[in-house]
């Protein structure tokens, strides 16, 4: 008898984890897959989206399970998963995280938002939403988001034995970092216990969330030959705010002495300056604010600031958009001037 | 009697265990179990992990392979060849440009008949760089005279690696062997794999390295390896080699049979699926063939007699097997993840066509499609589309388009790239705030720079929106340097993090003219640009009111693989600047050691464990190496001392415009791989300077000047203060590593003292 609750036409139960580099989604995917294969005798495969992903860039991790006698030949990314785990809420902006979700599938989101908000943010009409505040759990236990997410995923994947994963966590940490065993077990358990579910009724005629295979912006008729890019600096069109993981610098203009130390250390060129006059009427540069569209939240500027004009801030939804001071790039087109 | 013997073998089949690993892990596992003598390697995606896993296993004492991190793939191939001449067992792994960089060594190794095993984790080679998988690198290997085996799954990677050595060393063959598997699809996907529990059965299978062949270390029988020949002799030499390569066909079969006896897994020359009665077929190499098998099942349920052929060996090319397999096939589509531009089909298409041509009764229609380049995924519906093309051809007996690209898109006019900013020209970057004058008395330059605040009027050279990690040190470091450069610059980055995160097509974070070129030739490339510019200017063909400043940026890991090119460029003294950003490792490929990694530091190829404590030797002193070329100006700098760096940049520009080559070295933080806090970058740089690990100095017209002396300022700190900031060096502060730490401290002190002496004595 198969322990898998559902299967697609090739016999696979599929999971896709959506995250940004650095949150440990790849490791979580690997641990899930190993637990299924080594711990439960299933056949399976696991891989990630590939490329030069850096910390803070979108990544995906894929897990396929099937019965032990089923051969896995498919190498391609999972397009229509049964379960999706979203490790980072701000990803909504950059990635269609629920692309291809099965109509009766489950999407787990790391968020403090309520079900209705999640449903709305994701554009879901039906299906099961699972909510867990993994960031809060990880912060409280001084552990990582991925362990809490793993706990919550285990509640969803009830054919896997949570006790097995507890054993894996124990052996992972016990030798080198024995003091981390208990906090990580607690994190896993809290993820498992604190995850909340809400099912929005699946109508009989419901279809899977459509998936779109990303198409390149340019083709053979529109690429310049040799792959030349003549739109210099067009990376300013990118929104990198999704790379932040909970913190951003708060700017308090009152105590700013405009020394430019922040500007000097900022890897993402977020500080916006404008010319004004000093007390004697001479032209001088003044810090106007921060362009949060590019801020990845490293907080180097806070440490570089000799006054308290910059401070750590826990990012609240909407703060960055409201307080963003846009760069005044010398634009030819577009609406940022 | 024979029966009994077979039964006995069956009973004693060695124990196997199941694991869940990737292709790279299995290549490393096979190498560890074989216990090769030497691996000379250089990191390149996606093969790098093989060396990483072997390093990890070495730190746990799981094998005795001497892992040699070369200065580049050319060097790694040299190490391997040199080692192979001793009769030692030799192993390597590479990909793409790395494979091409070593390629001149490959025909030498095969032509001189020294066996070894090279894992080629296939990846694109192309103009616009692409780090993902296709077979364009492999196709360059087809004419090297190596045996080439192809592995579709992690299981096959393991098994073929064990078989490969035995084939290579066989007396009928005596040739090196490539095991090729798909980058990422096979190298990184984890699958269920069976492997021998102990290494003994693997070692028993490959046996002791055969003796009786000439080696470079035989005192009794000294030999000359690598004489030169003329055509009369070379033709005969090549005939020998050609015959040996064909003999590898039978040897493969023999070894595969023996391997099946101990493993239970069989690998025929051709992997055939549904081919018994197939009327339409796909011929696919490696992982794509696996994906297509699912589609064969589906089509067969619909009554279509479909099949897939995938070779396990492509050198020697199994022509006869292919003729047999395609005998009754009406149409075959050969899908290739590479092209042989202008040849009306990539290489294997023509080899298949030529195999069929020798059978006068054969009527199989052959279609050829280039697909899946640069890691473009191959989905079931793609395989279906391929079958449909074959079905259509079979039905009509005609091929509409014998050769084509599959999966291309024309693009939409309205999505064409549009300029986003106005071109940033010289006036923009001429702040007029920086003054450089020559002091006739001291024979040095005097520089005046304004406070940082005033310099914020000068726009950045690089644009926001690049994809570097939070807290990356590259961008503050580079930008500070360019603050000191007035006017326009032409900037070249060679491959590395800085390049990758600023040019992810179709986006660019460059405002000024930008060129990328490969690792080993960045300085040479820009020297060509410089000379062409001045030559055209001299001829009056370029109408320009002010010159460019030419800047070549090298990193990650400092300046390693392009060192030869850098020294050559320096000796020629072109008017340009080479700027190194040193983050102490090859961070772009996942933090492998570079020569600038300091001793004891942990990287993914210098692990920390029972048997190893990070890197085994001291860091490279690039600034001093380059100073020895007697160029006009050499400097070091970091973001933590901004005024110091801006001044040096201004001097660099003056020398590059008036005298010749400048070399600058910036130390920068990599929070991800240094395992430090994102926000600590500046503090870490400060401590690196104040501990004298990274002294700030310049060598101007041969005279050394320390520009910031932490001792004189009474700010010197212990090296351990710097090391304490980084996870990669925490182990060095443990008591058991006292000796290692002292050795590091002594080296830092020794170099600092030499520098001080040079500072005090202008003539040295």
TrEMBL record, chain A:
Give the Pfam families listed for this entry: Fer4_7, POR
Keywords assigned by UniProt, alphabetized? Iron, Iron-sulfur, Metal-binding, Oxidoreductase, Pyruvate
Note whether Protease occurs among the keywords.
no
Q: The 4Fe-4S ferredoxin-type domain covers which part of the protein? A: 247-276, 285-316
Record keyword Signal present: no
User: What GO molecular-function term can you cite, just one?
Assistant: metal ion binding
Extract the InterPro entries matched here: 4Fe4S_Fe-S-bd, 4Fe4S_Fe_S_CS, Oxidoreductase_gamma_subunit, PorC_KorC, Pyrv/ketoisovalerate_OxRed_cat, Pyrv_flavodox_OxRed_cen
Q: Which domain of life is it from?
A: Bacteria
Matches recorded under Gene3D superfamilies: 3.30.70.3270, Pyruvate-ferredoxin oxidoreductase, PFOR, domain III
**NCBIfam families xrefs:** PorC_KorC
> This protein is called what?
Pyruvate ferredoxin oxidoreductase gamma subunit
Q: Which organism is it from?
A: Salisediminibacterium halotolerans
């Amino acid at each position: 008898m198969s322990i898998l609750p559902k299967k697609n036409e090739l016999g696979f139960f599929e999971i896709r984890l959506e995250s940004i580099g650095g949150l440990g989604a790849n490791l979580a995917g690997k641990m899930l897959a190993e637990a299924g294969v080594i711990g439960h005798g299933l056949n399976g495969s696991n891989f990630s989206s590939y490329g030069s992903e850096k910390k803070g860039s979108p990544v995906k991790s894929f897990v396929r399970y099937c019965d032990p006698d089923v051969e896995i030949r498919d190498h391609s990314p999972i397009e229509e998963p049964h379960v999706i785990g979203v490790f980072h809420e701000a990803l909504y902006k950059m990635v269609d995280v629920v692309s291809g979700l099965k109509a009766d599938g489950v999407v787990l989101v790391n968020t403090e938002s309520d079900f209705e908000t999640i449903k709305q943010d994701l554009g879901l009409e039906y299906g099961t939403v699972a909510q867990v505040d993994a960031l809060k759990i990880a912060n409280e236990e001084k552990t990582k988001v991925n362990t809490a997410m793993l706990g919550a995923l285990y509640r969803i994947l009830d054919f896997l034995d949570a006790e097995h994963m507890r054993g894996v966590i124990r052996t992972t940490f016990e030798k080198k970092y024995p003091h981390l065993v208990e906090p990580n077990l607690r994190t896993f358990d809290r993820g498992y216990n604190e995850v909340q579910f809400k099912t929005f009724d699946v109508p009989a005629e419901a279809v899977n969330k459509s998936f779109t295979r990303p198409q390149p912006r340019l083709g053979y008729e529109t690429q310049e030959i040799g792959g030349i890019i003549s739109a210099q600096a067009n990376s300013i069109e990118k929104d990198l705010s999704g790379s932040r993981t909970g913190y951003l610098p708060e700017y308090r203009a009152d105590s700013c002495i405009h020394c430019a130390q922040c500007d000097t250390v900022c890897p993402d060129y977020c500080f916006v300056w404008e010319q004004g006059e000093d007390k004697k009427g001479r032209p001088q540069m003044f810090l106007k604010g921060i362009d949060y569209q590019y801020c990845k939240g490293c907080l180097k500027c806070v440490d570089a600031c000799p006054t308290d004009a910059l401070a750590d801030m826990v990012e609240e939804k909407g703060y960055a958009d409201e307080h963003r001071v846009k760069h005044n790039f010398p634009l030819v087109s577009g609406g940022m001037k | 009697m024979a029966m009994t013997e077979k039964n006995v073998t069956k009973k004693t089949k060695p124990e196997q265990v199941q694991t869940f690993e990737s292709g790279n892990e299995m290549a490393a596992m096979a190498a560890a179990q074989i216990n090769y003598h030497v691996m000379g390697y250089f990191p390149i995606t996606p093969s790098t992990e093989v060396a990483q896993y072997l390093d990890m296993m070495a730190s746990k004492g799981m094998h005795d392979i001497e892992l040699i991190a070369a200065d580049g793939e050319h060097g790694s191939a040299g190490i391997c060849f040199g080692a192979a001449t001793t009769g030692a067992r030799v192993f390597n792994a590479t990909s793409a440009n790395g494979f091409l960089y070593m390629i001149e060594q490959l025909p030498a190794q095969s032509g001189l008949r020294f066996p070894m095993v090279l894992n080629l984790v296939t990846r694109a080679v192309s103009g616009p760089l692409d780090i993902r998988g296709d077979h364009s690198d492999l196709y360059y290997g087809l004419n090297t005279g190596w045996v080439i085996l192809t592995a579709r799954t992690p299981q096959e990677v393991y098994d073929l690696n064990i078989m490969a050595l035995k084939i290579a060393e066989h007396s009928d063959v005596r040739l090196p062997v490539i095991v090729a598997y798909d980058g990422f699809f096979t190298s990184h996907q984890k699958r269920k794999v069976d492997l021998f529990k102990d290494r003994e059965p693997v070692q028993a299978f490959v046996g002791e390295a055969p003796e009786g062949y000439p080696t470079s270390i035989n005192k009794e029988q000294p030999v000359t390896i690598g004489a030169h020949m003329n055509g009369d002799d070379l033709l005969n030499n090549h005939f020998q080699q050609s015959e040996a390569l064909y003999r590898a066909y039978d040897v493969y079969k023999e070894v595969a049979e023996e391997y099946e006896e101990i493993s239970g897994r069989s690998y025929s020359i051709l992997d055939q699926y549904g081919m018994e009665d197939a009327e339409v077929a796909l011929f696919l190499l490696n992982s794509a063939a696996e994906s297509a098998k699912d589609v064969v099942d589906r089509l067969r349920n619909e009554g279509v007699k479909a099949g897939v052929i995938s070779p396990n060996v492509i050198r020697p090319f199994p022509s006869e097997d292919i003729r047999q397999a395609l005998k009754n096939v009406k149409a075959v589509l050969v899908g290739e993840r590479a092209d042989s531009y202008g040849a009306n089909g990539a290489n294997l298409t023509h080899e298949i066509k030529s195999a069929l041509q020798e059978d006068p009764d054969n009527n199989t229609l052959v279609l050829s499609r280039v697909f899946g380049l640069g890691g473009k995924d191959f989905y079931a519906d793609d395989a279906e589309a391929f079958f449909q093309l074959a079905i259509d051809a079979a039905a009509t007996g005609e091929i509409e388009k014998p050769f084509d690209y599959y999966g291309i898109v024309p693009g939409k006019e309205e999505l064409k790239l549009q300029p986003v900013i106005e071109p940033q020209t010289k006036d923009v970057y001429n702040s007029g705030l920086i003054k450089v004058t020559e002091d006739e008395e001291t024979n040095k330059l005097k520089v005046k720079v304004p406070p940082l605040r005033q310099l914020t009027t000068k726009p950045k050279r690089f644009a926001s929106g690049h994809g570097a990690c939070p807290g990356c040190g590259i961008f503050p470091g580079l930008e500070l340097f360019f603050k000191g450069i007035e006017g326009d610059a032409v900037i070249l980055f060679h491959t590395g993090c800085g390049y990758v995160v600023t040019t992810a097509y179709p986006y660019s974070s460059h405002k000024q003219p930008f060129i990328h070129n490969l690792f080993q030739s960045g300085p040479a490339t820009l020297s060509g640009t410089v000379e062409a510019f001045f030559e055209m200017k001299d001829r009056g063909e370029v109408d320009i009111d002010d010159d460019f400043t030419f800047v070549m940026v090298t990193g990650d890991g400092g300046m390693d693989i392009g060192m030869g090119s850098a020294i050559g460029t320096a000796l020629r003294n072109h008017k340009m600047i080479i700027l190194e950003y040193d983050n102490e490792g090859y961070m772009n490929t996942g933090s492998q050691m570079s020569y600038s990694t300091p001793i004891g530091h942990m990287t993914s190829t210098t692990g920390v464990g029972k048997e190893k404590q990070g890197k085994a030797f001291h860091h490279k002193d690039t600034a001093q190496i380059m100073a020895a070329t007697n160029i006009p100006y050499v400097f070091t700098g970091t973001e933590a001392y901004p005024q110091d760096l801006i001044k040096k940049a201004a001097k660099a520009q003056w020398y590059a415009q008036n005298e010749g080559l400048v070399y600058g070295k910036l130390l920068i933080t990599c929070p991800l791989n240094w395992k430090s806090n994102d926000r600590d970058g500046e503090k870490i740089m400060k401590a690196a300077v104040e501990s004298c690990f990274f002294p700030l100095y310049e060598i101007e017209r041969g005279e050394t000047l320390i520009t910031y002396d932490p001792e004189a300022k009474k700010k010197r700190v212990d090296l351990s203060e710097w090391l304490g900031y980084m996870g990669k060096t925490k182990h060095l502060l443990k008591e058991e590593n006292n000796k290692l730490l002292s050795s590091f401290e002594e080296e830092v002190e020794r170099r600092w003292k030499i520098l001080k002496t040079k500072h005090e004595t202008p003539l040295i």
